[in-house]
Amino acid sequence: MTSSKGTSKALALCSGLILLLLIIDQASKIWVKTSMVEGEMIEIASWFKFYFVENEGMAYGITIGSKLLLTLFRIIAMSAGLYYLIRIIRMQRFSLGFLLTLSLVIAGGFGNIIDCLFYGEIFSSSRGAVAQLVPWGSGYGDFLHGKVVDMLYFPIIRTTYPEWSPVHAGEPFIFFSPIFNFADACISVGVALLLLFYRRSFSLALELLSPQRTEETDSTAQ
Predict the structure, then answer these.
(1) pLDDT in tens, 184-208
(2) What is the tally of helices (H) and strands (E) in the chain?
(3) Which of 52, 82, 97, 148 is deepest in the core (most CB within 10 A)?
């Protein structure tokens, strides 16, 4: 296999994975958005429920600062991530597993960006009624101000804090309490894999992509 064919194969696999994950993420969100009212819960098992909520923040409902600034930050961060992924693939110095792991994180980021960009424009509100697809601009919010759809809820353990606990003594405790979506899961799994198996590859990629190293490479090439 020539180097050109190797690069093309890696690009195709990473692009295919990102596209597949985006389709799964958006299909699940659109199904929930057009089938459930915000706050509605469907119990699959005692530890697995579909619980429809919308949030304006980051993964797992975390909210930080302005919605507009957060959306713009996401777009810039994921666009940079995609750009650098392509550059890393062309270097042909990294394993396919590492490249696919980076693709997992990028797919998750773009999955939530789609909600922020378009959902406020194309969906009616989910509060008190099942949302409907509406003509562009007739939705519940403005461009860049859409809410992220979350639905996965895994209350695996329900118990209480012990009475001797210095905080929340005797209060209910649920593990795992965050409500999230498929895109959040992609990001979390991708980051976990990077930390567990690809820390050295990630560090090397950052080193090779540093401005100083890039300038040295360009000078050598000339």
Answers:
(1) 999 999 999 999 999 999 999 999 9
(2) 7, 6
(3) 148
| pLDDT confidence band for 61 (50 / 70 / 90) | low
Where b means 16+ CB within 10 Å and e means fewer, 141-178 reads beebbbbbbbbbbbeeeeeeeeeeeeeeeeeeeeeeee
Check 25, 115, 142, 184 and give the catalytic one: 184
Active-site residue among 25, 115, 142, 150?
Answer: 150
* CA-to-CA dists, residue 23 to 19, 123, 173, 209, angstroms: 6, 18, 34, 30
Distance CA 130, CA 126 (A): 5
Q: Whole-model pTM?
A: 0.87
User: Does the bond joining 176 to the residue before it have cis omega, within 30 degrees of 0?
Assistant: yes
Question: What is the spatial distance between Cα 222 and Cα 102, in angstroms, rounded to a whole number?
Answer: 30
Distance of alpha carbon 22 from alpha carbon 150, whole angstroms: 15
Task: Examine the residue annotation and report whether 184 is marked as an active-site residue of this protein.
Answer: yes
Say if CB 95 and CB 67 are below 8 A apart. no
Whether 150 sits among the annotated catalytic residues: the reply is: yes
